Amino acid sequence: MTSNSSLPTIWSAQNIRTALQTFFVAIFFAALLSISPARAQIGPDKRELNVVATLVAESQQVQAGQSVTLAFVMTPKPTWHGYWENPGDAGIGMSFDWNLPDGVTAGKAQYPVPDTLLISGIMNYIYKGDYAVLVNLVVSERVKPGPLPISVKSEWLACTDEVCVPERDELSINLQVVGPDAAVSLNNAFNDYREALPRQLGSAATFMVKDDLFRLSIPFPENIDVESPYFFIKEDGIVDYAAPQKVNRDGDRLIIETAARGDELQNISGVLKIGPKMGLSLKASAGDVEMSGVPIGGGSSGNFIGGGDQSSASLLFIALGGAIVGGLLLNLMPCVFPILSLKAISLAKAGGEEGIVRRDALAYTAGVVVVATALGALLLALRASGAAVGWAFQLQDPRIIFVLLALVTAIGLNLAGLFELPNINIGNKLADKDGPAGSFWTGALAAFVATPCTGPFMAAALGATIVLPPIAALIIFAGLGVGLALPFLLIAFVPAIRDRLPKPGAWLDSFRKAMAIPMFLTSIGLIWLLGRQIGEDGLALSLIFLLLVALILWWFGGGQIKGLSRGMVTTGALIAAVMGGIMFLPDEEAMETQRAATASAATLPSEPFSEARLSELRAANQPVFAYFTADWCITCKANEAAAVQRQETADAFAAANVAVLMGDWTRPDPAISKFLEKHGRAGVPLYLYYAPGEEPVILPQILTVGTLTDLVT
Amino acid sequence: MFHKSALASLAAVATISIAMPLAAAQKNGAIAQDFKLTDMYGKTVQLSDFRGKTVVMEWHNPGCPFVVKHYDSGNMQATQAAARKQDVVWLTINSGAKGKQGHMNGPEAQKLVKQQDMSASHYLLDAKGIVGKAYAAKTTPHMYIVDGSGKLVYQGGIDNKPTANKADIKGARNHVTAALNELKAGKQISVAQSRPYGCSVKYAS
C-alpha cells in the first residue's frame, strides 16, 4: 500500500483496498485472456482437462424414426487414463446427464474393451490411449424436420498412476432432422470406434460363487485362439478385482476362476477380453461350474497365474509322448507306407554292412526331423503373425498340393515300373547306390507327405503346441519326426529285427509294384482336395498337366529300356510342366470364391452379405434369408448344423427361390456391426427373413428346420 | 505382558498383509483385525483399546479430490462431530506412502487437522500401508465401522453419490451416519457394505 499517499483522502482505507483488489483482479484476467484466449473461452471454472472429451455424431443429419450414434471421443494426455464403466477397485466410471429435445431418447453407453492396470495391489479397469464411448440417440417419428440441439453434462475421472482428477464438461452438438429422402452422410471414424467395442457372445455363460471362489464357464469354440484371456465383470462386489484369474480351456468352454468377494447375484455380465483389441460381451447366470480342462499359460501381463513349471513340464512330456506315438502311427498311413517300405527294402539290400545301414538310418531320421521341425517352426511363425493355421496348413495352398500330387504320382509310376530313377540327388531316390544324402531326402519327403495324415494321437500333441512356449512346441514337432523315423532306427540298430526282414529277391519286384497302389490312392485323395479348393475347371486343367508329366516320364522310361539317356530333357520338361501347372492354377480371389462356394455347396449355398446386395435382391422382389455368424459363436454353429445347412432347408429355399446372404463376423467388420446394431443386436447370431415387399422378420436365436421351412411354405 | 500381546498382534497384521496383500479383506461380522499405529503426536493407538465403544475408521488423503469434496464442504467434519457426540471413536488413517500424493508426517497432519477443523479422535500414520492393506482399504475415503464387541459391521463408501461434486452431498445417503444411528437404535444395519469411491490409496508398491 505504498501508493496510499497519492490517493484522494476522501477514500476510506476499506474503499482503497477494494478498488485495488478489483484493479488487480481485472489486470490478472486481462493477462489471462491475452495469454490463453482458449482457456478464457471455456469460462473461469473450467480447468484444462487431462482427459479431453469431444462429442461427435456419426452424421449431422438424422431422419425421424431413425437413430444416430454419438461418440464421446476421449483423449487422455500422456500418462493419464480414463475408466471403464466398472472402474475396478478404485476410480469412477463416466456419467451422463442428457438434455435432449422432446422425442429424443439416449441409449446405454457402450464402452470399448478395457485394459487392466494394477498399482500396489489395487486393480483399475482403464483406457490408456484414445478411446470412444458410443451412445445411440433414437429420434421418434413425431420429431419435425429442423435443428435438433443436443447437450450433455458428463463427468469422468482422469488419473495417472499417482493422482486422480475428477473432470466434467458440458458438451453439445447441433444435429439436423431431415426428411426421409434427404441424403445422410456418415463419419467413417465410427467404423473404428465400433471395432473397439466388445462383440456380443451369442450363448449364455454360467457362474458360481462358492467357498470364496468365483468361477465362470463361457462357451467358446475349441479351435479359436485366445491370448491371455481376462474377464472384466460389470457388477461390483462379486469378485476380488486384484486377484489373479486362472483360465482353463476344456473343449468348447473357457473356465475362469478367481477370488470371490461377496454378495451373490443370480445374473452377472461382463466382457471377456481375448486379444489386444478384441473382447466378447456376455451375460451369465448362476449355476454349477467345475474347474476342468487344461490351464492356459499366463501371459507376460503378470495378472495371471501360469500353469507353473511343474504342470507345463508334465504337459510337455505327455505331448511329446503323443507326438512320438503319432509319428510312429504315421508310418502306416497310405501316403507314407510305400516310401517307407521301399526304404526298409533298401536297408535290407545293404545286407550285412552294419555301418552303411546305420549311416542311412541316421540320415533318414535327420531328414524327417528337420522337415517336421521346419514345418512346425513355419506353423508357429504363421500363428504368431496372426494367421489361423493348423497342422497340415501347407495343404491349404493348392500350389503345394499340386506339386505334391505330381510328386506322388511320379513316385507311383516309378514304383509301378514305368521308369527307373537315375542316380540324382532328389527326394525320391529309392534305387541302387542309396547314399546318405538320398536317405536324408527320403526322410524329408516322408515327413512332408505325412502331414496330411495327422493321426488321432497327434491331434492332442499338436494342440499342446498352442499352449506351450515355442521351444517346447518345436521339441514336440521334432518328437513327431522321431516317431516317424523310429522303425528305421530300430531296423538299423537292432540286428535281430533286421535279421527277420525278408531277404531281397524276385518277390521284391512284385512287392514294389504293389506299393504303387497306395501311392495312386494318395494321388486320388490329393486330386479330391485340390478339386475342393480350385473348382472343377481349375482341376481339369491341372489334370491335363498331370497327364503331361506322366507322358514325359513314360517317354523317359521308354528311353531307359532302349538305353537312351533322356535325363536332361526330361528334367527340363518336368520342371516346365509343373511350373506351367502352377501358373495356370486359379488366383487367390477365384479360390476364395470357390472356397466360399464349396463351403456351402454341400447344403445351403450363400453369397457374402452386403447391404447393397440385399437391397438389390429386395428390389428384384426376391425373398431373402440373411444370417450372421462367427466362428467363435457356438450357437451359430449349432444352428447351422441343426437347421441352416440342412437338405430340407436347402430344398425348401430352392423351391421358393430364396436368396441366402451370409455375414461372417469372425473378424471385426464395421459394416456388419452397424447392420446388427440397426436390428437391435450387438451380436451374432442374427437370422432375418425378408419376404418380398414386407418388413423383415427377425427369427429366434435357436433355429429348427421347421422354423426355416415354414417361412416359405 | 500386555505389551507383548500387542506386539504379537502387530506382527500378525504385518505377516498377513505381507503374505497376502489385499487378499486378507476383512469380513463383516468377523472380529476386526487388531492393529497398532502411531498418531500425529507420536502416540501409539491400538484398536482393541477401544473395546466397548463403536469405532469408525476413515482412510484419508488430503490431496484426493474426493476427500477434498467432503472436507471443503464440511460434510466429513460434521459426520465426525455427530459420531463423537454419540461417544464413537473416530480414527482417520493415512496410508499414503512417503513421496506419494497425500503422505503426511506428524507436524503436517497436526497443521492440517487444525486448518480443516477435523473432529477425528486420532489421526493415524500408516505410511507402510500395513493396516490399510490388512483392511483392503482401496480408496480415499474408504469407511469401516467396528462395533463395541470388536466386530466389523460396515465397510464401503461414505455415501451413495460417487462424484467429486460438492453439490451431490445434499441428497446423498450418508452410509456412516445411517449405520451409526441404526447401531445406536439396536437395529440391523441396512447397508452394511457399499462400493467405496474416491482415489486409490497411494500405497508403497
Give a description of the structure.
Chain A folds into 4 domains: 35-195, Immunoglobulin-like, CATH 2.60.40.1250; 199-304, Immunoglobulin-like (Sandwich), CATH 2.60.40; 312-589, no CATH class; 602-712, 3-Layer(aba) Sandwich (Glutaredoxin), CATH 3.40.30. Chain A is globular. Chain A is α+β, with helices and mostly antiparallel strands. Chain A starts with 12 loop residues before the first helix and ends with a helix. Chain A is built from 19 helices and 25 strands. In chain A, 38% of the residues are buried. In chain A, strands 12, 13, 14, 15, 16, 17, 18, 19 and 20 form a 9-stranded mixed beta sheet that branches. In chain A, strands 21-23-22-24-25 form a 5-stranded mixed beta sheet, with helices on one face. In chain A, a hairpin with a 2-residue loop joins β16 and β17. In chain B, a hairpin with a 4-residue loop joins β1 and β2. Chain B is built from 6 helices and 9 strands. Residues 1-24 of chain B have low confidence and may be disordered. The interface between A and B is medium-sized, with 28 and 30 residues.
At a glance:
The complex is a heterodimer of chains A (713) and B (205). With 713 residues, chain A is α+β, with helices and mostly antiparallel strands.
- In terms of structural class, how would the helical and strand content of chain B be classed? alpha+beta
Helicity range of the residues of chain B? 25-40%
Number of domains of chain A: 4
- Tell me the overall shape of chain B: globular
Q: Largest beta sheet of chain B, briefly?
A: 7 strands, mixed
Poorly predicted regions of chain A: 1-13, 27-46, 298-310, 386-394, 423-433
Instruction: Show the largest interface.
Output: A-B, 28 and 30 residues
Multimeric state: heterodimer
How much strand content do the residues of chain B show?
15-25%
Largest sheet features of chain A: 9 strands, mixed
Please give the count of helices of chain B: 6
Q: Gap between N and C termini of chain B, in Å? A: 34 Å
- Strand tally of chain A is 25
